[in-house]
Amino acid sequence: MRGWVAMYTLGLPRAMRERRRDEVTGDLADENLDAVRRGELAGLRRRRLIRWLLGVPADLSWRFLDAPPAAQAIRARLPAIDWVPLTRWSMALVALSAIGSAGALVVIGIPLATGQIRPEWWPGLGPTGFLIGCTTVLVGVIACVPWPRRGAIIVVAGAIAGFVTAPWLWGCWFVAVAAAALRAYQADSGSSWSDRSGGPR
What we know:
Layout: H1 2-8, H2 14-38, H3 44-77, H4 88-113, H5 126-143, H6 148-165, H7 170-189, H8 193-197
Helix pairs in contact: 4-5, 4-7, 5-6, 6-7
């Protein structure tokens, strides 16, 4: 349930996300305490699963109908943030994705340009589609540093193209998407690594 709350509150200001998470955490603690008092711990997991499934429509309604106006009001009161520095995690994943994409371009691009890769060796869209996917991911990963949301969209498009041509490299495509998603999430929350460590922004 906590994971579900973290997922459907993505993109909201940090204060709203934390308030919603604290509400759910407090509700779960009260429910657990009540189950202990009544001696009904055995069925607690099943009841929570049913309650979660029944509550999904209400959560999505809150996220897409009620939360955006409140989030806009909160952001209007905050100072404008033109750019949010990368955290250590987002920087590491972005760098890993950029190096991996550039390396794949070199490893496949040079043999393709020199005619060392034959079309019959790689059916379907072949190495050309793979290079398009790698190039798009590389552009998106670089773009997500100054423009997190736009870069994330580009990375997802490139990862889909790459997955279609080289599904056996699904882990690499996933890392690129995770890097862009983490960067977009971190930039949306307006947090930097120094915020988390207690230092100046």
